[in-house]
Design goal:
Elements (H helix, E strand, L loop, with lengths): L8 E2 L22 E5 L6 H7 L5 E4 L2 E3 L3 E3 L5 E4 L5 E4 L6 E5 L4 E9 L4 E6 L2 H4 L19 E14 L2 E6 L1 E7 L2 E5 L2 E8 L4 E4 L2 E2 L4 E8 L3 E4 L2 E3 L3 E6 L12 E4 L2 E3 L16 E6 L5 E3 L2 E3 L4 E6 L10 E3 L2 E3 L5 E3 L11 E3 L6 E2 L3 H4 L79
Parallel strand pairs: 2-3, 3-6, 4-7, 5-8, 6-9, 7-9, 8-10, 9-11, 10-12, 11-13, 11-14, 12-15, 13-16, 14-17, 15-18, 16-19, 17-20, 18-21, 19-22, 20-23, 21-24, 22-25, 23-26, 24-27, 25-28, 26-29, 27-30, 28-31, 30-32
Antiparallel strand pairs: 1-2
Keywords: Repeat
Protein name: Nitrous oxidase accessory protein NosD
Organism: Kutzneria buriramensis
């Protein structure tokens, strides 16, 4: 491995390494170190293998052709420069970074061109092997559900990956924030198979993906707030899917997001073929959609439908602003599985299918009340492009004091948003650093 990490920086002043080599044992209690790549270890993987709980792995600018797996709890993996520290899979590996231990923070770097995921955070041993997921989502067979608890992904750029940019699967108690995803052949950000999730997805930009954000079987204290989901094929979906465990999807809060012009042709084409949709609710139930700005989506601003035998029940659409959509709200059940108890209140609406939903389906309604259904003429989706051909991202904001800040302490349970305090976003939300502008 690495013989001696001579330049390794002790965070605890005055402590030595005990003579056994950093990362190899006999440190004074409470001593944490910074392991620098490549000064102290030639690769990120080598540095991570040396790290102990509480350590910081700090990566210098460069292109790193490796897949990094973090299996030690409470390690921080951080790049010195978000745009210049690049983990490039060269389309030869499934995942750029796998987080398989609790309390890990991944910060201030770029992951690109992996056949599946830029970053995978998971408690599933099968998912971590990279074998499942060939058709989108992870079917882990008879593997028991095991959650990874506590994680943070912050100031990360994930671009041109074959499934998901940032993927939390069978994980709980985490935050995905201040990140940028593009070129996700399935979704830019995906949260799947958690109950209760206690996950917050906030202040991110997702553009030029097949889907900006997707939550599948992600239930309970699941918050998607203050994001800019613009210029994808579909902005956001929350859905139930038999391919993953913990059916049905329930209890997410989608609030204060800008979800607009999601009909960008220069994007990967997802197998489901969605196009021109702001929000899709597909068999999801008991979700709240609050104070989102949903604009310029040529098919529909918000669609409710069913997943096979799983009806959408009790979704509340409250105080959102709709503008310039083909249909603002459309409820349609072509497969015969009809929803119940879905309702609207206080939205700025122009056109709905069926018509006059604001008065005929106003909140509150009984969960046994049938959800009306209709159809409309949907625009034909153009063909997509290979995810590898999606435009490269521009420069994104840096983690503050990345090279000098200490390791990040990830809380066991994140602070969950106060839903009432989340405002309707301005049109300009998260405009800086974005490649697709509002029309």
């Amino acid at each position: 491995m690495v013989a001696v990490l001579g330049s390794l920086t002790l965070v605890l002043s005055g402590c030595g390494t005990g003579g056994d080599g950093p990362g190899q044992g006999r440190r004074p209690a409470g001593a944490h170190v910074t392991i620098r790549v490549p000064a102290d270890a030639p690769t990120i993987s080598a540095a991570v293998s040396l790290a102990q709980s509480g350590d910081l792995v700090l990566v210098a600018p460069g292109v790193y052709h490796e897949s990094v797996k973090v299996t030690t709890a409470n390690v921080t993996l951080r790049g010195e420069s978000r745009d210049k520290v690049v983990i490039d899979g060269q389309l030869r590996q499934p995942n750029g970074i796998i987080v398989a231990a609790p309390g890990v923070a991944v910060e201030n770097l770029t992951v690109e061109e992996n056949t599946q995921n830029g970053i995978l955070v998971t408690g599933s041993a099968k998912a971590a092997t990279g074998l499942p997921g060939q058709n989108g989502g992870y079917d882990t067979g008879d593997e028991p559900v095991t959650f990874l608890k506590s994680f943070l992904v912050s100031y990360v750029t994930a671009t041109r990956n074959g499934l998901y940019g940032i993927y939390a699967f069978s994980a709980q108690d985490g935050v995905i924030e201040h990140s940028y995803t593009s070129g996700g052949a399935d979704s830019g950000i995906y949260v799947g198979q958690c109950k209760p999730c206690r996950i917050v997805v906030r202040d991110n930009i997702a553009e030029l993906n097949a889907v900006g954000y997707e939550g599948t079987n992600a239930s309970g204290d699941m918050y998607v707030v203050g994001n800019r989901l613009v210029g994808n094929r579909v902005g956001l979906t929350t859905n139930s899917d038999h391919q993953e465990k913990l059916l049905p999807q329930q209890g997410a809060v989608v609030a204060g997001n800008l979800i607009a012009v999601n009909q960008q042709p220069s994007t990967p084409e997802q197998a489901d073929g969605g196009w021109g949709i702001g929000i899709g609710i597909d068999g999801g139930s008991d979700n709240q959609f609050l104070r989102n700005r949903i604009a310029g989506n040529v098919n529909a601003g918000l669609v409710i439908t069913a997943t096979a035998d799983l009806p959408p029940i009790g979704n509340q659409i409250v105080d959102n602003t709709f503008a310039g959509n083909g249909v603002d709200v459309g409820w349609t059940f072509p497969d015969g599985t009809q929803g119940r108890g879905n309702c609207l209140r206080g939205n700025d609406l122009r056109a709905t299918v069926p018509s006059e939903l604001a008065t005929t389906a106003g909140c509150p309604v009984s969960t046994q009340s049938p959800t009306p259904s209709g159809t409309w003429t949907m625009p034909k989706a153009p063909g997509g492009i290979p995810f590898t051909d999606v435009a490269a991202p521009g420069t994104q904001p840096q983690f503050p004091n990345a090279a000098t800040a200490g390791a990040t302490a990830v809380p066991a349970v994140p602070e969950l948003p106060d839903t009432a305090s989340i405002p309707l976003p301005p049109v300009s939300l998260l405009a800086d650093g974005a490649r697709v502008q509002m029309s």
